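BUG: 3D viewer hangs when loading the predicted structure for this chain

Environment: internal workstation, default settings.
Expected: structure renders.
Actual: progress bar stalls at 90%.

Input used:
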Amino acid sequence: MSKEEFVTFAEKYTDTIYRVAYSWTKNSDDANDVTQDVLIQLYKTTKEFESDSHLKNWLIRVTVNQCKMLFRSPWNKMEDIEEYANTLGFEEESHLDLFRAVMNLDKKYRVPILLFYYEGYSTAEIASILRIPEKTVSTRLFRAKAKLKDYLKEE
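Structure tokens produced before the viewer hung:
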């Protein structure tokens, strides 16, 4: 991969990498670290990508793996999500409430919700990226929507 290609891909996918990392870690510093690690892996890789979607899927898979490695660290820490929510500048209070609700979900639900609704992946694509059965993805999305509905009713 040339430096120009790397810069193009990094500019295009850094936000996606960060969102996935943040949804997993709930910590902006850790999400930044994961994002940097993933971009370094992208720069160093000799893997040939068939398409942009192949590259994006690979980046998300590497991001999830980096997050898992981070959680094994004894230095693992959590941060209040309000700091990150404030940087997003939601125009409507309902969007902020939805963001809070999503971030309060367990990570096994947060990541599929993010990939399905924000990144626009199908359940089959999410299953492939996360290396879990498609039925599991469907179940997690169903349960996450129910949890979000309950959470938003409470507020």
